[in-house]
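Data availability (excerpt). The following record was deposited with the supplementary files.
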Amino acid sequence: MRLRAVIFDVDGTLVDSQADILAAMSAAFEAEGIKPPSRDEVLGIVGLSLDVAIPMLAPQSDHAACTRMVQGYKDAYTNLRLLQGADVSSPLYAGAREALARLKEQDEILLGVATGKSRRGLDKLIEAHGLAETFLTQQVADDHPSKPNPSMLLQAMHELGVEARDMVMIGDTSFDMDMARAAGVHFIAVSWGYHETSRLAGADVVIEDFAQLDGALDLIWSKANG
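Predicted structure:
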């Protein structure tokens, strides 16, 4: 049996966490007395590790201030999650749970995540949504350079024992797409996330909802086999 790997981005792909992301970023900037970036600016960097994203949003700030804002963001995000619960503050997109269940039932498909979230943040999210047995590989920002560096996907290949041609990355940002390309794996873009689909023109397939995922995967792998 030929194993295949399907690796998901998290924020903007599996869960809609933008409300907490925007609120936490505003809190981090306001604590430094800096005007918070706009919604579009913040969503434009979702997927990058915080130590890369915040200096991009605050180019006028020195390293020490950016370091404080990174920690301020983490603290604010944690507090928001505690107030509501991760399942409420970062709800699964419609059809996500069902799509994961369909894929998990197929013995030849191995599931994973590659996310800019911290290990702590991912663990809380997985626990809140009851997905503890779903992902066989979990790549987080704590252990890797920021996307679009291919490190996360290369490590996932190693852990799962699959080749690049048998892996598909699914995400909503150009960072996900560029990471997939750098790792030599296929990429499916989702239209409901944080980057405009015009920034995802290099995707193998763009899907409009999770009901289209199975067909998109079949299309990619049929072409790869051909």
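Summary of structural features: The mean pLDDT is 94.
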